[in-house]
Amino acid sequence: MPPLPGFSDNAFKTRDDAIRAAEALITPLMQYMSAGKGRVKIPHATGTHFDETAAQLEGFARPFWVIGALLMGRSTNMELLQPWLDGFEAGTDPDSPDFWGPIKSFDQRMVEAEMISFSLLAAPRELLWERLSSKAQRNLISWLSGLHDKDMPQANWLWFRVFANLALLKVCQIDTPVVKRQMQQDLECLDRFYITDGWSGDGLWRSAELDLQEFHVYKETGVANTVLSSRNACYYSGSFAIHFSQLLYINFAGDLDPERTERYKQQARDFGRGFCRFFDEAGAAIPFGRSLTYRFACGGFFAALAVAGVDMPVPLNGPGSVKGFLLRHLRWWARHSDNIFYTGGVLNLGWIYPQFVGIPFKGVMAKYSKFAYSSSFGFSVPVGGHGLAQVAPDSTLAFSRDGMETWAVKYKCAEPEFKTAVINATSLPTATVQWFPWADRSVSVSTTIIPPTTRWPDWHVRIHRIKSNSKYGKLFTAEGGFAIHGRHRKDTLDLRPLDLAQLHAKCAVGEVEGIVRTENSVLILSGQGASGIKTNLLDAPHRTTATPLKPEPNTNLMRQRTLIPTIQHTIDGIDESLEILLVTKVFAISAEANGGWKKQGKSLRDRWLDEPAVDIEGENLQDGFISMSS
């Protein structure tokens, strides 16, 4: 899997650099075009959950995000783009072998309609719409109109129909009551997804009442997870869908819908203020949520922001600032692109290296429900449920009640409660959620997360109060820190044990390698950095062990062969009166983040030994008082 010339060697400093990268990405796809140019079939056997015709339409349509942008800026020669424009003729013709097929309810073709519509809206009329034959224009109008009154997921999909209708209205001159009614209905529904601080959910936000409703259904029927509504806000809320589409709507529909677009501008300001923190100084994004095979689309918010021209607050105040966030992200991907392209130059499926990800909702617990996510260490996705090696529980507390044959982790949880902890007389925000490992709610967990502080920048703390509503002979728990590269640099063999005495003051992050282990802690050191975990020992008859767990290969997004610092507890004699308090301290330093680790201040050894002490007062975490000290 070689790098891609034009992208991997790109400095990403100028407009010409961006154009060169765009052309480098779309050119390899042309060898896989159908005879009529209306479909693209990538020659790999990975299947989709939708039909093959829609899959080949996806291959054709997705590049129109960049083709539309190139046309919008008149930024490339038409000889390169003409085959793609020819595909409009064949793909919309019902008599052509390349016909995309009519749009039905809950159809993948709805998704691809947004890229087709974007290109129509973005391109100057003489470069796209007026180049089409009158027959192709009629066929395209008919095809886009196929979205009208069809059932679709009440989520970001509604934007696909909004843009189809916007293209029909502004480009195709189809100004009908149906177009306007459908557009207004969809926009009103989308606006109901708004949560706070600029964020929208990908659908209606799950209420506490729905939690209870789902539990009552479980008690009556024994069937779990019957309510589909969820609480997830990820890149679909920003760069992949909601905000990305809102910003494009500002650009294309500001004259038609000034009141709504002004509201979207304010939401972009609120959202951007926090979203920029998802990217480190070198441009690395925090991977979490689904569809991470979109890779550098994580920076799509900044690209759309530039198009929309919204006046933004610091640190996005000005075109140069927005450009900086986008280009740093693209530079990061160029530096990490050795394993993201197939030999033919087409992007493969995965993040830093190819991973088999057939359906974006696979591994949903790993993608949305971990305690922490990292731009440096990524996260791990389970490959099965048989044993901890398959579960790969990084940044997760897993439970087993069947002798460690199967494991349950946090999936759905209650709305978070935001409180404060006191750190050396300074208040620090904390987040507490209640969750249940199993649908029968036989065990309940209240987890409080205390983030890193200026005093302890390498540590975050998790406090779990575990209550049982049933009797068990034994309950097993396993909690992981961040997964980290687990091999020696020179020979790629497993990391070897390292005595704490060998971790002297001159040992540098990313240079020292090995595993430092005690009864209640484990620290893993490799070229990627340092990842560790500590806990307090449980009283007898309960037992605590600290281990460097070796998960199955290819479970982590960033590295193929990892180790997870893990604390395991065996809790004996579970009954309804038992309550267990676990305090877990998680340590991590990246050798690669923000352009590379810079040695300053305390040594690695001192940072590991300087853990925060946690004191909890009160009967429960929600009402109690948490303090941290040296």
Descriptive report:
- The protein is α+β, with helices and mostly antiparallel strands and 630 residues long.
- It folds into two domains: 292 residues, Glycosyltransferase; 258 residues, Beta-galactosidase, Chain A, domain 5 (Distorted Sandwich), CATH 2.70.98.
- Helix content is 29%, strand content 18%.
- It contains 16 helices and 17 strands.
- The strands form three sheets. A ten-stranded mixed sheet has the order 10-11-12-15-7-6-5-4-17-16, with no helix packed on it.
- Strand 6 and strand 7 form a beta hairpin.
- Helix 2 runs parallel beside helix 5 and helix 10 runs antiparallel to helix 11.
- The chain is globular, with a radius of gyration of 26 Å.
- The two termini are 49 Å apart.
Task: Report low-confidence residues grouped into runs of 5 or more.
Answer: 357-361
Mean pLDDT: 93
Q: What Rg, in angstroms, do the CA atoms define?
A: 26 Å
* Tally of strands: 17
Structural class: alpha+beta
What top-tier CATH class of the largest domain fits best?
Mainly Alpha
In CATH, the architecture of the largest domain is Alpha/alpha barrel
The helix count comes to: 16
Strand proportion: 15-25%
CATH topology (level 3) name of the largest domain = Glycosyltransferase
Taken together, the total number of domains comes to 2
Distance between the termini: 49 Å
Q: Largest sheet, order of strands side by side?
A: 10-11-12-15-7-6-5-4-17-16
Inertia-based shape: globular
Biggest sheet details: 10 strands, mixed
What proportion of the residues is helical, as a percent range? Answer: 25-40%
Protein name: DUF2264 domain-containing protein
Pfam family, one: DUF2264
Domain DUF2264: 14-355, 359-614
InterPro entries: DUF2264_C, DUF2264_N, UCP014753
